[in-house]
């Protein structure tokens, strides 16, 4: 369904969202799943900085 050619990429994404069964939810889950991954990554790093877990020498062995 998807073509990566620069002239037809937008129309193929539109086709997936409109004509493919549940294509809109696949696109929605893909976009929000990628954002959720980075949110979880930043929260994990932030938690490590907040609790100072980088100071434990056993962590780096």
Automatic annotation (TrEMBL):
**Keywords, in A-Z order:** Electron transport, Heme, Iron, Membrane, Metal-binding, Mitochondrion, Mitochondrion inner membrane, Respiratory chain, Transmembrane, Transmembrane helix, Transport, Ubiquinone
What cofactor requirement does the entry state?
A: heme b
Its Gene Ontology cellular component terms are: mitochondrial inner membrane
**Location in the cell:** Mitochondrion inner membrane
**Topological relation to the membrane, as annotated:** Multi-pass membrane protein
GO BP terms: namely: mitochondrial electron transport, ubiquinol to cytochrome c
The residues covered by the Cytochrome b/b6 N-terminal region profile domain are 1-61
**A GO term, aspect molecular function:** oxidoreductase activity
Q: What does this protein do?
A: Component of the ubiquinol-cytochrome c reductase complex (complex III or cytochrome b-c1 complex) that is part of the mitochondrial respiratory chain. The b-c1 complex mediates electron transfer from ubiquinol to cytochrome c. Contributes to the generation of a proton gradient across the mitochondrial membrane that is then used for ATP synthesis.
Quaternary organization: The cytochrome bc1 complex contains 11 subunits: 3 respiratory subunits (MT-CYB, CYC1 and UQCRFS1), 2 core proteins (UQCRC1 and UQCRC2) and 6 low-molecular weight proteins (UQCRH/QCR6, UQCRB/QCR7, UQCRQ/QCR8, UQCR10/QCR9, UQCR11/QCR10 and a cleavage product of UQCRFS1). This cytochrome bc1 complex then forms a dimer.
Task: Tell me the protein's name.
Answer: Cytochrome b
| Organism of derivation | Bos gaurus gaurus
Q: What is the lineage of its organism?
A: Eukaryota, Metazoa, Chordata, Craniata, Vertebrata
**Gene from which the chain derives:** Cytb
């Amino acid at each position: 369904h998807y073509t990566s050619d620069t002239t037809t990429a937008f129309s193929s994404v539109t086709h997936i969202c409109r004509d493919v069964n549940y294509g809109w939810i696949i696109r929605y889950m893909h976009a929000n799943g990628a954002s959720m991954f980075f949110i979880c990554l930043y929260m994990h790093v932030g938690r490590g900085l907040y609790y100072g877990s980088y100071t434990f020498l056993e962590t780096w062995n």
